[in-house]
């Protein structure tokens, strides 16, 4: 029996989501139900498989969130949606090694009636190693969207809290319908920040308390071992703090220490040397004073992906007195030190990764370019974004490079990744394709479109609910465009028509949006694609559902009136 039109394609997807039995299932579906099959082939793109590797023309085939083949002569499955990559560049998806994107701060617990400030309960003092970032993470946060838009496909999220905030988790930045969790309890998030109005309230107090917690965990383990192996021994008390610290004491997970200055780096390293835990430091703006110490300690280093605002430098005036000039010089020196430290770390052989905590993801590439201009090599910059980060968080087996068998986490750009005019066109996370608007540079000196878009187009959309199509009509009136699009009516009444809006044509890129009425709700749909002659290939983003392939062919009998 033929499936009714309203049960297929674009509107079938909307109807399914609004009226069906559940949400869409993505690659990481925790329900045990069969996930949606998604197979894509990015053909003839320039692929940079790892840091420092030269780009090679290749095809990448992705199925169910995994790269199944990479190369110049691979076989493309018949079911694959082909995405032409002739003018595109593909890199491994970026990894945020220390992130708080999508993390919400837990509520402060109430103080008990018998509260004693010199000996507060662990939770009130900010000692909560049992907490997990998974309980604070929200994939639907705009912070996650911003991170993904900047090319990040995986994040090591750390919980927000006190001196021992809890355990981190590895999240793939996929769709809202997935768990997105790859691994929990990956690291202990700690800092030297004291508690207000109670012990430990000073840096020295925090160090003493951390030492106390660590050593008591060791003692508790010894007592438990004695109790389980000998009769007549009193059962030791099980403390949730010490139980949660066991993985750190046993060397199974590192401590990610947030540091604010070089003195805190020295203090964190002194604790590491005394107690023996694995250490990664992050948060410092200038590491150049402690590079040798970091190298000798073996501690991991995460660099904040941020550079100082250079507007103050650009706006400096020439005709100023000595005092103002001295101030200018100090600002310039601080700026130069900050952007040069990445190169110095690399030169010293200290592998580092990047963090976006307290930084704007939208400025990430600007910051990396500034570091490259200050002496960091492009291969070292890419390693910090990919392989170094993957190794630091224990994900190098499944992420960091473009290889068969690894997660389909990719950044697809319009040019070499670090070039000034390169833009991110697609981000593939967990096999899901996210499309971003390309601001095409003006061409022919006047910014006009380089292709004709007006006419009547027959389009086909592919969604997990099936394949469907309709007609797209575009008219040009001077420099403006308007038109309509038809689609299968979700109410079952044949087809429906909607006007298109926000029509933009830049170079060979076409984008527009329209609204679909389904179940009394207006669902926003945005379309972007690249036109070549009478063909268009692109993507269709349906609010709340994700991005899906769309292709169109123009009626060859169309004759432009412009």
UniProtKB/TrEMBL annotation:
Q: Which UniProt keywords apply?
A: Signal
SUPFAM superfamilies attached to this UniProt entry? Composite domain of metallo-dependent hydrolases, Metallo-dependent hydrolases
Show the Gene3D superfamilies listed in the entry. Metal-dependent hydrolases (3.20.20.140)
Q: Where is the signal peptide?
A: 1-26
Domain Amidohydrolase-related, by residue range, is: 332-433
Query: Which is an annotated Pfam family here?
Result: Amidohydro_1
Query: Could you tell me which InterPro entries the record lists for this protein?
Result: Amidohydro-rel, Metal-dep_hydrolase_composite, Metal_Hydrolase, Metallo-dep_Hydrolase
Q: Which residues form a coiled coil?
A: none
The name of this protein is Amidohydrolase family protein
């Amino acid at each position: 029996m033929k499936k009714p039109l309203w049960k297929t394609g674009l509107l079938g997807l909307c109807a399914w989501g609004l009226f069906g039995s559940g949400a869409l299932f993505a690659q990481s579906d925790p329900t045990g139900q069969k996930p949606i099959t998604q197979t894509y082939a990015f053909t003839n793109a320039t692929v940079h498989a790892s840091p420092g590797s030269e780009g090679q023309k290749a095809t990448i085939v992705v199925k169910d969130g995994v790269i199944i083949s990479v190369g110049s002569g691979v076989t493309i499955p018949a079911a694959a949606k082909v995405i032409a990559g002739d003018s595109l560049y593909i890199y491994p998806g970026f990894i945020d090694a220390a992130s708080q994107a999508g993390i919400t701060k837990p509520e402060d617990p109430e103080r008990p009636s018998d509260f004693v400030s010199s000996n507060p309960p662990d939770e009130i003092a900010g000692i909560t190693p049992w907490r997990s970032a998974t309980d604070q993470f929200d994939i639907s946060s705009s912070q996650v969207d911003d991170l993904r838009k900047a090319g990040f496909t995986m994040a090591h999220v750390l919980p927000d809290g006190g001196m021992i905030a809890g355990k981190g988790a590895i999240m793939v930045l996929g769709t809202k319908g997935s768990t997105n969790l790859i691994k929990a309890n990956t690291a202990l998030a700690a800092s030297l920040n004291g508690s207000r109005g109670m012990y430990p309230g000073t840096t020295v107090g925090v160090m003493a308390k951390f030492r106390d917690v660590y050593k008591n965990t060791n003692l508790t383990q010894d007592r438990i071992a004695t109790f389980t192996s000998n009769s007549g021994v009193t059962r030791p008390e099980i403390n949730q703090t010490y139980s949660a610290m066991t993985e750190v004491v046993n060397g199974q997970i590192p401590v990610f220490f947030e540091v604010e200055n070089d003195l805190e780096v020295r203090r964190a390293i002194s604790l590491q040397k005394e107690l023996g835990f694995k250490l990664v430091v992050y948060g410092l703006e200038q590491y150049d004073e402690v590079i040798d110490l970091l190298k000798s300690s073996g501690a991991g280093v995460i660099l904040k992906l941020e550079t100082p605002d250079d507007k103050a430098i650009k706006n400096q005036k020439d005709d100023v007195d000595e005092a103002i000039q001295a101030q200018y010089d100090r600002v310039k020196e601080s700026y130069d030190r900050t952007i040069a430290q990445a190169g110095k770390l690399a030169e010293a052989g200290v592998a580092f990764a990047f963090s976006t905590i307290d930084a704007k993801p939208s400025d990430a590439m600007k910051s990396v370019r500034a570091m490259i201009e200050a002496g960091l090599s492009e291969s070292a910059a890419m390693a910090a974004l990919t392989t170094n980060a993957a190794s630091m968080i224990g994900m190098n087996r499944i992420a960091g490079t473009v290889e068969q068998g690894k997660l389909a986490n990719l950044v697809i750009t319009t040019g070499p990744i670090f070039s000034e005019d390169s833009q991110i066109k697609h981000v593939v996370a967990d096999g899901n394709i996210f499309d971003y608007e390309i601001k095409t540079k003006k061409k022919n000196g006047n910014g006009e479109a380089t292709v004709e878009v007006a006419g009547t187009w027959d389009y086909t959309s592919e969604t997990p609910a099936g394949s469907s199509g309709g007609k797209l009509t575009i008219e040009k009136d001077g420099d403006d465009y308007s038109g309509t699009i038809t689609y299968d009516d979700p109410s079952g009444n044949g087809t429906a028509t909607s006007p298109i809006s926000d029509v933009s044509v830049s170079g060979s890129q076409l984008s527009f949006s329209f609204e679909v009425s389904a179940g009394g709700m207006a669902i926003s749909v945005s379309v972007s694609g690249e036109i070549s002659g009478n063909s268009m290939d692109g993507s269709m983003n349906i609010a709340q559902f994700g991005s899906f392939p769309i292709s169109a062919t123009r009626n060859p009998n169309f004759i432009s009136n412009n």
